[in-house]
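quick q for whoever's on today - can somebody do inverse folding on this one?? i tried earlier but teh output was garbage lol. tokens:
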């Protein structure tokens, strides 16, 4: 069962080892900066400031919105073009700009239903120390994809 996609604003997404990491938060919270740092480590850009999400057979898939595909806003520089990553199943949502997350979050993480699919959500403060590496570790520890047994449980880095 495939449902029509919905464009979600104030969210960015990158693909890491075939799984999407959805980064959400208000303007200025660091979504694009975190996406850029992850791209520098080999992730692929799915979307910046907007992401198309759709339920495909019980799997939440992130895809680039056609009007801004491949564009990432680099604050103080402008719009920069990157190769577009293929749509990927959303494995984890990082929420930026809210209350700071716990030092050791609960396991399993709380989840949110998006387009009828439960996805784990982690309050994440990118901070100044190793934000991309910490985001990759969050995906490795907490990211899941329901109804997609063919995907590896451990993310690697794209292109490395």
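ok took a stab at it. sequence:
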């Amino acid at each position: 069962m495939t449902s029509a996609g919905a464009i979600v604003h104030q969210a960015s997404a990158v693909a890491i080892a075939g799984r999407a990491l959805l980064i959400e938060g208000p303007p200025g919270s660091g979504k694009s900066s975190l996406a850029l740092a992850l791209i520098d480590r080999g992730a692929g850009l799915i979307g910046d400031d907007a992401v198309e999400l759709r339920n495909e057979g019980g799997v939440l898939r992130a895809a680039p919105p056609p009007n801004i595909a491949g564009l990432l806003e680099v604050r103080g520089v402008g719009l920069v073009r990157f190769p577009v990553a293929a749509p990927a199943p959303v494995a984890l949502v990082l929420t930026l700009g809210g209350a700071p997350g716990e030092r050791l979050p609960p396991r399993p993480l709380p989840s949110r239903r998006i387009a009828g699919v439960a996805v784990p959500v982690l309050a994440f403060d990118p901070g100044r120390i190793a934000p991309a590496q910490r985001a990759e570790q969050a995906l490795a520890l907490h990211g899941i994809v329901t109804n997609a047994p063919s995907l590896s449980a451990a993310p690697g880095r794209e292109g490395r």
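fwiw Residues 149-160 have pLDDT under 50 and may be disordered. also Residues 93 and 121 are 5 Å apart (CA to CA). so keep that in mind when u check it
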